[in-house]
Design a protein that fits this description.
The chain has about 190 residues and is α+β, with helices and mostly antiparallel strands. The chain is built from three helices and four strands. The protein starts with a helix and ends with a helix.
């Protein structure tokens, strides 16, 4: 009966500790996810601005071959880029790059309107977030491993503490009383 209560107590404490660790892990994961996505979006915004400056230069000189060549080069050098397109106000695609492999995860699309002397153009870049997803999965795995290790360590330490400071003194008290009872019975039997 006492051993089952001790086991239940240890299990309950470990479960409570595990729930608290998982809640902490979830908040850490969400905060890291938000920061990674914000960094990713900021980087994509910077790249979109660079690409738009170059595209404006090509549109001013009407060098469409240069724009097309640069879109292809940019797409090949940046493995996260899924597609780059330049559309006019009617939705007609003037230039477009699309990689052969489709997105493996969620796509992030950023657009920028370019005001030129002959009209408005829309530059659109779509990127694959698989790199972020992989990093977040690694982070989640690391958090779970650390939490599991911490939980196991807590359970072992609790068991050792309970055993040393609660169970052993009780067992010693039981043995001492049994010896005293046997001694008392032997005295009563001798009279």
């Amino acid at each position: 009966m006492q051993k089952s209560r001790l086991g239940f107590s240890l299990f309950f404490i470990a479960l409570l500790y595990c729930v608290l660790l998982l809640a902490g892990n979830y908040f850490i994961y969400q905060q890291q996810k938000q920061e990674l996505y914000q960094g990713f979006e900021a980087q994509q915004s910077i790249e979109l601005n660079l690409l738009s400056d170059l595209t404006k230069e090509g549109l001013l000189t009407q060098n469409y071959a240069f724009i097309e060549w640069y879109f292809k080069r940019w797409g090949r050098e940046h493995n996260k880029v899924v597609s780059i397109s330049l559309d006019d106000t009617r939705g007609y695609a003037l230039m477009q790059y699309r990689r052969a492999v489709s997105a493996q995860a969620e796509m992030l699309v950023s657009t920028k309107n370019l005001q030129m002397h002959d009209g408005t153009y829309e530059l659109k870049i779509s990127t694959d977030t698989i790199g972020l997803e992989r990093r977040l999965n690694e982070l989640w795995l690391q958090l779970l491993l650390v939490s599991s290790g911490a939980t196991m360590l807590l359970v072992v330490l609790l068991w050792l503490v309970f055993h040393k400071y609660a169970v052993q003194p009780l067992l010693e008290e039981v043995r001492r009383r049994q010896k005293a009872e046997e001694k008392l019975q032997s005295l009563v039997a001798a009279k």
